[in-house]
Amino acid sequence: MFKAVDKNKIFDSNKKFLNNLNKDYDYFCEKVSRLNIDIKALKKKISSLNLALPSWGLGTGGTRFGRFPGLGEPRNIFEKIEDCAVVNDLVGITSSVSPHFPWDNVEDYKALKDHATSYGIKFDVVNSNSFQDQINQKYSYKFGSLTNPDKSIRQQAVELNIECINKGKTLGSKGLTVWIADGGNFPGQQNFSKALSYYIESMQKIYKFLPKDWKILLEHKPYEPSFYSSVINDWGTSYICAKELGEKAMCLVDLGHHLPNTNIEMIVSRLIDLKKLGGFHFNDSKFGDDDLDTGSINPYELFLIFNEIVCAFDQKKISNMSYMIDQSHNVTDPIESLLQSSNEIISAYIKSLLVDQKKLTNLQKENDIIGANILLKQAFNTGVSALINKTRYENNNAIEPIYTYRELNYKKEKSKIRIQNKKNNPGIV
Questions:
Q1: Domain-embedded: residue 424
Q2: pTM over 0.85
Q3: Which of 17, 84, 173, 367 makes a 20 to 30 Å CA pair with 392?
Q4: Which residues contact residue 416 at a Cβ distance below 8 angstroms, ignoring those fewer than 6 apart?
Q5: What's the structural domain count of the chain?
Q6: Tens of pLDDT along 204-257?
Q7: What CATH number does residue 245 fall under?
Q8: What is the C-alpha to C-alpha distance for residues 27 and 22, in angstroms, rounded to an integer?
Q9: Distance (Å, whole) CA 23 – CA 139
């Protein structure tokens, strides 16, 4: 198996931080021991977490409105896999990639799988793109895809998703995420009832092609690009459709796909209770679907979401979950952003494990509002970086991933091979 990052370089970088890390870790252990928490169990949780990286999150930097190519950025999915391997070598919890088709189309999918395997990378849930027209596409999605009034266009979108399933099967994926941009920007533009009916009808056709061990994730979004109405606009609509489709259909929660100030952790709880929470797209936002780095704006919200997940696992309400990063607002180095996001996610997760769920339940029964809030805040305010960094070190990953990455000069070296098109490229490819 190839290593994207030389182990010796990680080792040399780690030596600079090891002395202080050991001191910080000893302090953490002493503090946490008062809470009767199993440190080894926490380390195991860190090592076993798997975050899928978005292939699109490694492409040309910029925003969805303009692309500004940077140094050494990948030109295709094969090179994106190499960058994903760098992230995983440094943090150790991102050993899978979520591809997007047709952006990531290749001629030989077995060769792509072999390439990923050689770097220790697997393929997670695949994603379909019916929100952009592609070269040589017969019908346009300008007025909708799976919900288009034109049956021929709906069928084209159905066939696209079936193709994604077939590609995913070759790659070893076990799921398909479907997000559509369908909706309207003006009153009267769309018949709400017929649009939803068309969606269910189209999704039923796709559902029939799912392998037995697959799941299909329905992704909702309240607005953009359809600002007056979106067909799958909220978790309730997503749930109704998932229930209609069958047990393999689940709801996906994208943290940016909610109206401002929405209580996302409550939505997570509802979907857990309804047995329809299938996974997450992690990112962050100030106003809407900003696709910012995870935890950059609302780290407490991220913690509260994980608190609901941990509570559900403790109560055996759920047994597995798909965790995917979904960010593309890259005015930074995409690799650095993914390193930072993965760190914020694991941090929120570990902090949620510090919450005494039994004590929290009792405080809730007693209506001790302040006590319950303090309990959550104590866990959230507990510094867990020493534990995470120590675990990374013991797993031969980087104590300080971003620092080590910068020492590598990875993009500068890749720029000698990856000759970029300097034009302002549109889209989120």
A1: no
A2: yes
A3: 173
A4: none
A5: 1
A6: 999 999 999 999 999 999 999 999 999 999 999 999 999 999 999 999 999 999
A7: 3.20.20.150
A8: 9
A9: 62
